[in-house]
Amino acid sequence: MDFFADGLRRGAQLVLGGDAEVFGITWLSLRVAVVATLIACGLGVPLGFVVGTTRFWGRRAALTAFNTLLAFPTVVVGLLIWGLLARRGPLGGLGLLYTWVAIVMAEVVLAVPIAAALTAAAVQGVDSRVRRTALTLGAGTWRAHWAVAREARFALMSGVMVAFGRVLAEVGAAMIVGGNIRYHTRTLTTAVALATSQGDFALAMALGLVLLALALTVNLLLQLFQGHGAA
Amino acid sequence: MGLLSLRDVQHGYGGRRVLAIRELDLERGSVAAVVGPNGSGKSTLLRLLACVEAPAQGTVLLEGQAVRSGADRRRARQRITLVEQRPFLFAGTVRENLRYALSLHGVPGPGAESRLSAALERLGVGGLGDRNARGLSEGEAQKVAIARALALEPDALLLDEPASAADPASTGALYRILDEERSRGAALCFASHQLEEAYRWSDRLLALTDGQASPVTPENLFRTDLPPGSGTKTVRAGPLTLQVYTDKSGPAILALPPGDIVVSAEPLHSSARNEFKGRIRRISEDGRGGVTLAVDAGVDLVVRITHAALAELGLTIGSPVVLSIKTMAVRVF
Q1: Phi (first) and psi of residue B18, to 5 degrees
Q2: Of A130, A139, A150, which is closest to B88 when you measure between CB atoms?
Q3: Residue B288: what pLDDT?
Q4: Exposed (0-12), middle (13-18) or buried (19+): which is B270, by Cβ within 10 Å?
Q5: ipTM more than 0.90?
Q6: What gap in Å lies between CA B83 and CA B71, rounded to an integer?
Q7: Which residues of B touch A (CB under 8 A)?
Q8: Among A132, B34, B112, B129, which is disulfide-ready with B95 (CB 3.0 to 4.6 Å)?
Q9: pLDDT score recorded for residue B287
């Protein structure tokens, strides 16, 4: 138990003392997570919106695919992106393997189904009268879609946050395509894994605390947003 | 050709046809009422007229111009408004709801404020402006939704059961507002399952039965199951036993046209094979120079007779009567 408390204490010291490496790793993780979430939501939210609001042949198959992809093993995604970006792979010439861009690519693949599936669920949950009412009041297709999105905004925001959380906490794919290179592609999660295997429990604990703090912040922001909306 | 028309329209959901209308015209300065039982296609008809949905077959016309593309429908919706039976109010205050609707019509701030206040006042809900729209009672929400539609000053105003959540006093007030809209030159159409309401407040009645314009008014309609074969059949229609003449079998709708029912004080020695005893529950003017009787014969039957017949038979409320109708006069759909 002392060992645990000691790790926690020294971890807190590292964080509060503004350790440059901890700061660098955190910054990289945030950058990867924000960029990957933005791209994934940019693709996944419209996709989910279309699948959730329109009737077309293959719609059920698309929904099933999204839901299956939610459980896609992260190491398999890492492996696929690694295969794409490896020197002998189709995109090998880009020289992106073991860069933060490669991590973003893998995280996008993981987060798009989350954004799409949760968006589809969110807009499917919206009362069908919302779109119709907007239409009867003279809205065009886009304004009617916007009315649906507005009604579903809390659920949509939760979807974005879940995607962000998934990307931030992901370790398998980031390790494979990023390579966990110090000062370059070492994210919070890959660093925790390495520090633990090296026996540096204090560093692992410090990084774990940062991860926890980030997750907490995201949730608090979400709650704040929802609280304002409900008022 | 009316302001808003349907031609040879068919529509359905999931392979099931719910509406087939050959011709319908809504004129400026007139009120049409659509009546029929639940599931008869009233709401679908209103949605097609409102250009919220496109018919699977046939054409919707606005001032004689076919409304075909999505852009056509969008333009049409700037002139037509539908208030649904359980209207939806967006999150926010009542005023914000009306403001949103006006913004969709490109009505800017100051003009919008006076228009929305006037609309709320007309419906008697001026005091609800700053209330959260989601906290309103069903009746209040319905009034606010109608005010939201009126604020848009539409050329065609469609309402699905507009008085379903209203008390009798507000029902009268509501229909008087619709009357004012008619005077303004709008084309109005409302769906109702209240026949009296429909007769009283409309210029024209469209009766729907299983998605089709019914050739008879929708009184005295009964769902039944016809035995196989052709010719004369004896069937149950609600509490009544009827003889009908038809080739049809299976589920069907029987109609006893109110003008084809003979009223007498005693059973008749006649060719009519269907006879029911009952008592007169209500006597009213039918608005077309005749008299409408509501007769309790185990189920309410509506009968239409002349003033002379009423006087000759000396009928009053509570009088026992015998109703007769020929087998051949019972319509089968």
Answers
A1: -115, -10
A2: A130
A3: 64
A4: exposed
A5: no
A6: 21
A7: 47, 50, 52, 70, 74, 77-78, 81-84, 86-88, 90-91, 100-101, 104-105, 148-149, 152
A8: B129
A9: 61
pTM, entire model: 0.73
**Residue B245 three-state SS:** strand
Q: Is A135 in contact with B52 (Cβ distance < 8 A)?
A: yes
CB B297 within 8 A of CB B278: yes
CA distance B262 to B313: 12
Nearest to B77 among A129, A136, A151 (CB): A136
CA distances from A132 to A174, B76, B84, B157 (A): 44, 14, 9, 15
Euclidean distance between CA atoms B200 and B171, whole angstroms: 12
Assess contact for B37 and B229: CB atoms under 8 A: no
CB atoms within 10 A of CB B259: 13
Place of tokens 């006879």: B275
Which residue out of A133, A142, A151, A228 would a mutagenesis test of the B interface target, given it has the greatest number of B Cβ atoms within 10 Å? Answer: A133
Close Cβ partners of A44 (under 8 Å, ≥ 6 residues apart): A111, A112, A113, A114, A115, A116, A119, A163
B44 contacts: CB under 8 Å, gap ≥ 6: B11, B18, B19, B53, B211
In tens, the pLDDT along B243-262 reads 999 988 888 878 888 889 99
Using an 8 Å CB-CB cutoff, list chain B residues near A130.
88, 90
- Mean pLDDT, chain B cut into blocks of 10 residues (333 residues total): 92 91 93 88 96 95 95 96 95 94 89 92 94 94 96 96 86 91 95 76 83 74 85 88 90 84 91 92 77 87 91 91 93 79
C-alpha triplet A131, A137, A140: angle, nearest 5°: 65
pLDDT by position in tens, chain A (length 231): 678 888 888 888 888 888 888 899 999 999 999 999 999 999 999 999 999 988 889 999 998 998 888 888 999 999 999 999 999 999 999 999 999 999 999 999 999 999 999 999 999 999 999 999 999 999 999 999 999 999 999 899 999 999 999 999 999 999 999 999 999 999 999 999 999 999 998 889 889 999 999 989 988 888 887 776 544
> CB-CB: which of A127, A139, A141 is closest to B88?
A127
Which residue is it, tokens 């350790």? Answer: A19
Q: Which residues of A touch B90 (CB under 8 A)?
A: 130, 133, 147, 150-151
